[in-house]
Design the sequence.
């Protein structure tokens, strides 16, 4: 049976995904913002099973240079750091930030986001596309946060995006995936990995993203702002895995009316 | 260089005076940072880590020194 073969593959952890030549087993990428402290952050990353974390690039505090640093708690040799451009509103700011990130860590694989305005944190797609082109020319491998627009997704891919990361809902909103149709259209049209980035609020939202055929999910607030972030991190790990299994197993067709599960023959 | 032989520089928006003839590597050590964990921009140009020891701090330089922090 074809389906059981692929499921056996999942059980044996051979269900991997590859972005810009790097292969990962976990399909969950987690952020490292908004946690109570570094210990809780590290415990949540561990519970999530994530192999990639997003990080921001900020000024060091030169008046207190000895304060604890993220790298003391999450080891970049074990977990891939994905530097982001959160807080950048122009292509130039984002490019400048990632050039610094590359110098700080030596990583070409980066997350690009260029925001349009502060209230919705919706991406500015014109600036995002422009930044993608420049970064790709400079040898970066940008995974790109974008609107859930299949045409924009193709344009980003043509410009050199190594992954397309449409929002499911605004960043930090926890509203869940608002447009299943466009996310699915992006998945069908893309020849690079597609990850839902932003909007996940709880485990079922992550499962929905995976059931749509996404290669992965990126989240931060849904875990960090849960009352118990470490337990939510585990819930997200399981949700991403179950959504992926459900996608691979090929769900049943929907019917408009009931269909009995017990045989009708032999009724007394 | 000012009259007293020191150089006035800006680091992450803060003004500092350093002795003349200070290298960028010395400046980073003086601030108390691990050069392997930061990236430095000098007057809007990235300074490769391998050249920290060769770059001399000059009066009026503006530095941005960044590192990775938690983020989504």
Sequence:
């Amino acid at each position: 049976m074809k389906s059981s073969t692929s499921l056996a593959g999942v059980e044996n952890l051979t269900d991997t995904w590859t972005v810009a030549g790097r292969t990962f087993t976990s399909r969950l990428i987690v952020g490292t913002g908004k946690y109570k402290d570094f210990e809780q952050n590290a415990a949540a990353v561990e519970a999530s099973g994530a192999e990639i974390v997003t990080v921001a690039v900020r000024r060091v505090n030169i008046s207190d240079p000895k304060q604890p640093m993220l790298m003391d708690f999450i080891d970049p040799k074990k977990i891939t750091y994905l530097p982001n451009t959160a807080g950048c509103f122009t292509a130039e700011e984002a490019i400048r930030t990632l050039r610094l990130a590359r110098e700080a860590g030596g990583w070409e694989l980066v997350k690009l986001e260029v925001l349009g305005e502060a209230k919705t944190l919706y991406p500015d797609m014109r600036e995002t596309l422009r930044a993608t082109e420049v970064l790709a020319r400079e040898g970066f491998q940008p995974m790109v946060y974008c609107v859930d627009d299949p045409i924009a997704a193709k344009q980003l891919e043509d410009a050199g995006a190594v992954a397309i990361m449409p929002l499911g809902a605004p960043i930090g909103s926890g509203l869940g995936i608002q447009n299943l149709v466009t996310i699915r259209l992006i998945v069908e049209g893309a020849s690079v990995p597609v990850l839902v980035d932003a909007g996940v609020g709880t485990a079922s939202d992550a499962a929905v993203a995976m059931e749509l055929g996404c290669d992965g999910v990126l989240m931060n607030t849904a875990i960090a702002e849960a009352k118990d972030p470490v337990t939510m991190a585990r819930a997200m790990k399981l949700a991403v895995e179950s959504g992926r299994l459900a996608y691979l197993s090929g769900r049943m067709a929907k019917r408009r009316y009931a269909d009995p599960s017990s045989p009708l023959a032999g009724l007394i | 260089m000012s009259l007293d032989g020191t150089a006035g520089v800006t680091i992450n928006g803060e003004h500092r005076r350093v002795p003349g003839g200070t290298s960028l590597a010395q400046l980073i050590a003086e601030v108390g940072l691990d050069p392997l964990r930061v990236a430095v921009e000098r007057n809007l140009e990235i300074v490769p880590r391998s050249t920290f020891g060769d770059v001399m701090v000059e009066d009026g330089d503006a530095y941005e020194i960044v590192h990775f922090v938690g983020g989504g």
Summary: The radius of gyration of chain A is 20 Å.
